[in-house]
Amino acid sequence: MDLKSNRTSPVLTDPAPMNMSTLGMHSTRLPYSSPRAPLCPGLTIPWKKTGILDDFRSSCWLDAMKSSSPPPKKITKAVNNEYASYDADVAYNAWMVEYPSAIASFEKITDQAKGKSIALFLDYDGTLSPIVDNPDCAFMSDAMRAVVKKVAKYFPTAIISGRSRDKVYEFVKLKELYYAGSHGMDIMGPVRQYISDDHTNCVRSVDEQGKEVNLFQPAGEFLPMINEVLRSLIERTKDVIGVNVENNKFCVSVHYRNVDEKHWKTVAQHVNDVLKDYPCLKLTHGRKVLEVRPDISWNKGKAVTFLLESLGLSNCDDVLPIYVGDDQTDEDAFKVVREGHQGYGILVSSVPKASDAVYSVKDPSEVMEFLKSLVTWRKSSAL
Ligand SMILES: [Mg+2]
């Protein structure tokens, strides 16, 4: 992740999204040699198969996989050296100067919110729920659910997740919220008064409660392709112990958290082998997960803008959007809230990390504390 940050603390950098352009190659310049016609909605862009390129892509991916979310506790434990632990603390504290705690800075944040409406955007995995070995078991606690329910009573609140919208709703189970799944490519939000020409995939629908909503799926035409890729990835990786291929509707997530590190290259190779037939899909790296999704100009940041528009809160000086997330894919949203809407991104991280967020919290328990403080502040300011 090249954030061009001018901050000076030692930081970890997340890997950048990998597609052909990041490898210095423009897809349209590659001569066709694939034996099968790639299924690209509105596109016929081939991928040239060469062993050298495959090796290069796989090795880039492997490097990115290795740098993805190194667990600080394991590093400390493995080194088993109190000086290493001390150094980690020093580095974290130095980083905190540049990404202050949202809890310690709470008064500063609420000072900025005076006279404004707060709109809240929350990632799910690693933000509201802990990162766990089995992604199907990333449950949020009842205490967290109760706090999110309360916060949504006072502020418009949306969950923006890489999971499918249905899956994240199953975890959260709060009808008071708006949900954007598949990294914002599947949004169920409030009925928009105005739909711009840019959003032709936005249709009126009804939710489970019969309430009228807008459904926006900017990558709708990719669905058959994504399903095909899902089947291929399941088949290709079936013999790799520990790999988990997850269907997130407009995105396929290949989790390698439980795969022995010596087999990560095999995982990267399998994903590479499948992806090379689909040049209009791209790969992004999350925390021990490779994510395959449509290579369209849409991300969590665009989803934030879309939801603010839907809520009638865009182009308003009296709105303060706050986005809380832990992953590389949340960076697009941090940038949008900071640059486009004078809001704040809050990065959830227990290790120094380059980010476009303004503040930080250490883990989901601190996210809960921050949300609780927002509720208390809103209640007291209403008196
Ligand atoms: Mg996350």
Describe the protein.
- This protein has two domains: 101-218 and 298-382, Rossmann fold, CATH 3.40.50.1000; 221-294, Alpha-Beta Plaits, CATH 3.30.70.1020.
- 36% of the residues lie in helices and 16% in strands.
- It is built from eleven helices and 13 strands.
- It has helices at 51-67, 72-79, 82-98, 106-113, 142-154, 165-172, 223-237, 264-275, 300-310, 331-340, 364-381, and strands at residues 117-122, 157-160, 178-181, 186-189, 202-206, 212-216, 244-247, 252-255, 281-286, 289-294, 319-325, 344-348, 359-361.
- The protein has a nine-stranded mixed beta sheet, sandwiched between helices. A four-stranded antiparallel beta sheet has the order 7-8-10-9, with helices on one face.
- Strand 3 (178-181) and strand 4 (186-189) form a beta hairpin.
- Helix 5 (142-154) packs parallel to helix 11 and helix 9 (300-310) packs across helix 10 (331-340).
- 43% of the residues are buried.
- The model is unreliable at 1-6, 12-39, 42-53 and 72-76 (pLDDT under 50).
- The structure holds magnesium ion.
- Residues 123, 125-127, 325-327 line the site of magnesium ion.
